[in-house]
Each structure stands twice: as structure tokens, then as C-alpha cells.
Amino acid sequence: MDMADTAVIKQHLIDPEICIRCNTCEATCPVGAITHDSRNYVVDADKCNFCMACIPPCPTGSIDNWRTMPRIRAYSVADQLTWDELPAELSADQLAEAGVAADAVAVEPAAVSLPAAASGEEAFNSAQYNATVPPWSAAHAYTNLYGPKAAEKTVTATVVGNVRVTEVGKEYDTHHVVLDFGAMPFPVLEGQSIGIVPPGVDASGRPHHARQYSVASPRNGERPGYNNVSLTIKRVLEDHHGNAVRGVASNYMCDLQVGDKVQVIGPFGTTFLMPNHPKSAIVMICTGTGSAPMRAMTEWRRRLRKSGKFEGGKLMLFFGARTCARPPPTSRRS
Ligand SMILES: Cc1cc2nc3c(=O)[nH]c(=O)nc-3n(C[C@H](O)[C@H](O)[C@H](O)COP(=O)(O)OP(=O)(O)OC[C@H]3O[C@@H](n4cnc5c(N)ncnc54)[C@H](O)[C@@H]3O)c2cc1C
Ligand code: SF4
Ligand code: SF4
Question: Which atom of ligand 3 is nearest to the CA of 63?
């Protein structure tokens, strides 16, 4: 066995039991090391350069897993796509069997400067723009208080409101859903999200993974002083290519009746938070249901201003919509 065969690496892996398939890591990785299929998000050991850009933005921490492996036995992307759970660390005996000396030290490339993209231009890395750092005056965000690994760690919320907010008969069906947590603490800040665990199993018989929804209400509740949150959910009836589908979680949520119970995990997200500094201005850019966290932020500022104790900085919102709310004005000459 030559030396190259016995080299040991720290392999970067994603825990499929915790990952909520939010795509944040794939969108962040500057070298395209993270990919996914309909089942799992995975890391290609041949591409990952340990730059760590994907670690802070992952809302669940499922990205932060490492295994000491002989390089030639590194888990392939194809292996990882079949996993339901992370494999255990190899035992000392298994490592010895693979020719790894007991005192071998796993190597990881030093954090590297970003490589040029395939086009020759510098690859985009959101971390470069501090997108993974919350505003300095943001409040402390609590995350991962519930789930998602064990079913018993979810919180049961009760639906206390479900209103369609787009016109009936129009193409897009979006709902304002209010969930009440009762006596269970569920602290959230504007800009955070929660995970909804739809009941039932997917096509391969596994429990559905959780889907994330941005909190659309301010930190003190949809109704001030109540332990509830609101969500803005678009019913998914076609996939990104326009083919007819019935999105599991969005349809489940849009069809809920007042009094129904929902399994919730989270909260998630520590970076996309609003500043607490009273003079801070906020520029918001969104489309469609991406306005949910902006509603939370603008409503929180509105409540603070109403209290008369807050001279808030300016708020500016850019909203993109697929269709015009009103027909365009007719030409005066026609
Ligand atoms: C941080 C975060 C916050 C989010 N906040 C919101 C929110 O506030 N409101 C909201 O409505 N959604 C939000 N989403 C998206 C949401 O988590 C789900 O992905 C979405 O509701 C679809 O889930 P589904 O189970 O209905 O569809 P699935 O059953 O998961 O998917 C069915 C098919 O539809 C495709 N698809 C998935 N989503 C869309 C889409 N939006 N448009 C077209 N095709 C799609 C899938 O690729 C798949 O082919 C958020 C996602 C993230 C990561
Ligand atoms: S939960 Fe973490 S590991 Fe899973 S897709 Fe999101 S960012 Fe990636
Ligand atoms: S550590 Fe860096 S290279 Fe590796 S998967 Fe995460 S973002 Fe990509």
C-alpha cells in the first residue's frame, strides 16, 4: 500500500436527519462542492476546500459534520445521496485495517482564497459581503430550540387563523396563516424562519422533511403579547419548470382549518435580522412571499413608532411582483 492510499482526511458531510433542505449551503459554497437530489444535500470531498463559508449560514447545523477517513475510502457523492443518517466515525480497528497508523493526523487544506469561477471571473461568495453576520445592534436570536432530529422534539402549534390573501380565482393562491404555541416558549425575531413538518411520508416511505417558512409577524406576536406567529405561504401547484405538481407542505398549510394542530421545529436563522439601533435605516428588497420577513420588520417598526418611544430610521421597500395589481392606465389618446 503506498503512502497516498493511507492519507487521512477530515471529510465534510451533511447530516441528512437534521438537514431541512433549505439550499442555503449550496447557494453559499463558492466552489460548487455541495449538490442535492430530491433526497439529500451532499458534499463532494474532491471539491470541498474547507473554506467554511457554508458553516455559519446553515440554519440547523447539519452542515457541520466531519469524519476522519482514509482518503481512498472517502464517502462518494453517490453514497451520501442514499443515506438516511450519518455513518459513525470509523473505529481504530477499521482505520488500522485501512492501513492508517494509530497516530495519523487527519489533514485539511488550509482555508483558501477563493478560486476563480469557471468563466474566469471571481466566484461570488456571500460571506465576503458580511451576509453571514447580523447587524451589530440586532437582538440575540434563539435557534434550534426544537427538532428536527427526533419527532418528540417538535412543538405542536394550533392554527388560529388561515386567510387567503390573493383574490379567489386568480392564478396564485397565498395564505396568511397564524399559529399559536400555547404555553410552549417559541421566541422568534423578525428575519427568522420556522420549520413545518408535514404529516405522512414521501415516495420512498421516509417521513417528510421539514419545510421552512419565514416568520411574518414581529417578535411580540402576530397579536401583540400573544405567543403566536404568522406565516405567508404560497400554494405550490407547479414546479420551477412550470410542470404541474402539488407541493407537500405548502398545500398542507394552505388547507389547514382553525383548530388544526401542526408540528413545528426551529426557530432558524441568526443572520438576516433587523438592527435595533433606533436610527438605523433599512432597505428591503423582495418578491412574492419573500415579503414575509419584511412584513415582520415593518410591523415591528410601526408598533415601536406607535408607542411614541422610538424615532426610527427610514424604511425603504422594493417589491417585485409577477402581475400588476391594477390594469395599466389606458393611453389618453386612444
Ligand atoms: C429560509 C426559507 C424561508 C422560506 N419562506 C417561505 C415563505 O415565507 N413562504 C413560502 O411560501 N415559502 C417559503 N419558503 C419555501 C418553502 O420552504 C417551500 O420550499 C415551499 O413552500 C415548497 O414546499 P412544498 O412542500 O409545497 O413543495 P415540495 O413538495 O417540496 O416541492 C414540489 C415541487 O415544487 C418545486 N417547488 C418548490 N418550491 C417552489 C416554489 N416556491 N415555486 C415553484 N416551484 C417550487 C420543487 O422543486 C418540487 O419540484 C422558504 C424557504 C426557505 C429556505
Ligand atoms: S439545513 Fe444546512 S445543510 Fe441542509 S440544505 Fe440547509 S444549509 Fe444545507
Ligand atoms: S467548506 Fe467551503 S468548499 Fe467546503 S462545502 Fe463548505 S463552502 Fe463549499
Answer: 6
- How many angstroms separate the alpha carbon of residue 236 from the centre of ligand 1? 7
pLDDT at 326 (0 to 100):
66
CA angle 288, 289, 295 (to 5 degrees): 110
Pocket test for ligand 1, best of 236, 243, 284, 286 (most atoms within 8 A of CB): 236
Say which DSSP state 142 is in.
Answer: P
Model confidence at 289: pLDDT above 60: yes
d(CA 52, CA 272): 19
CB 195 within 8 A of CB 20: yes
Cα atoms in the Cβ-side hemisphere of radius 13 Å centred on 296: 30
Q: What digits encode the pLDDT tens for the residues 140-189?
A: 999 889 986 655 578 999 999 999 998 877 677 999 999 999 999 999 99
334: pLDDT confidence band, cut at 50, 70 and 90?
A: very low
Query: In the structure grid, which three cell numbers stand for residue 305, read together?
Result: 413608532
Distance CA 43, CA 76 (A): 9
Question: Do 90 and 38 contact (CB within 8 A), yes or no?
Answer: no
- Give the domains, in start order, of the chain with CATH numbers: 1-133 (3.30.70.20), 151-271 (2.40.30.10)
Residue 130 has pLDDT above 60, yes or no: no
Q: Cα dist. 72→58, 75, 95 in Å?
A: 28, 9, 12
210 Cβ closer than 6 Å to some ligand 1 atom: no
Atom from ligand 1 closest to the CA of residue 289: 9
Q: Show the ligand 3 pocket: residues with CB < 6 angstroms.
A: 12, 28-29, 31, 33-34, 43, 48-54
Rounded CA gap, 284 and 137, in Å?
A: 17
Question: Quick one: which atom of ligand 1 is closest to the CA of 239?
Answer: 44
d(CA 248, CA 237): 10
